[in-house]
Amino acid sequence: MFSSLLEEYPGDFEIQINYNESFLWDKKFQQAEPLYAQLVKEYPENFGAVLGYANTLSNLKKYEKALEWVERALIIQPGNLSAKTSRKYMRLGYANAYVNAQNYKKGETLLKEIFIDFPEDRDALLNLANLYLITKEVDDAKAIYKRLATSEKDSITSLNGIALAEHIGENDKQALVVATTAKEKADAFDDETIKEQTYDRYVQALIWNRKYIKAKTEIAELETQYTNKNWLYALKAMLGLYTGSPKKECR
Questions:
Q1: DSSP string, the chain
Q2: pTM for the full model?
């Protein structure tokens, strides 16, 4: 529709910017990039054009350039929430790229910068905690998970994370204590996703503590509630590896 309109009204800015944005809606970011590049040449002070170009670059994982352009958008409209939100996700993506490249300090810096716009942002906290788990900075990971516990749901997520951190810190007894507390909370909470994540962590903690019979019983009970779940297959495989009989336990 926008293409037809452009033929009828060539050079019309409103049609052009909507035409460009339609490529973003259709996830055709490669095609959108040159269109936005041309648009910002013609309208360098237009907020929508500049932010659209920044978002296009971000979707192409060109994070450094994307951040440069979102800063330009924020100069045009200081404090704009849409631009700040875009900047947050650019930083998340850029930080993840650095973490994957094992440049943990740069990833950490980018994640912490998110708190300037969004103090205690949940996504930033979760990514930061995961980074500390990777680098085995257990105390830092636990501190982040505690900051996350601002609601009933997130308090359970927090406990699940702390249990994993305890395991990484080679304190499996405490990991089981924390995982048990999380399970008790999840049992009383009406959220299937949280329940599955928590039961998964609880059984893992049983296996870490060599409580294999109890773990096997728990898995069998969970299989009556959940079918064809990858996390259950993974638990059975994990139990098999710990007990030395993976083929048997994976059936």
A1: -HHHHHHHSTT-HHHHHHHHHHHHHTT-HHHHHHHHHHHHHH-TT-HHHHHHHHHHHHHTT-HHHHHHHHHHHHHHSTT-HHHHHHHHHHHHHHHHHHHHTT-HHHHHHHHHHHHHHSTT-HHHHHHHHHHHHHTT-HHHHHHHHHHH-SSHHHHHHHHHHHHHHHHHTT-HHHHHHHHHHHHHHHHTS--HHHHHHHHHHHHHHHHHTT-HHHHHHHHHHHHHH--S-HHHHHHHHHHHHHHT-HHHHT-
A2: 0.88
pLDDT along the chain (251 residues), means of 10: 68 82 92 95 95 97 98 98 98 97 98 97 97 97 97 96 98 98 95 96 98 97 93 96 66 37
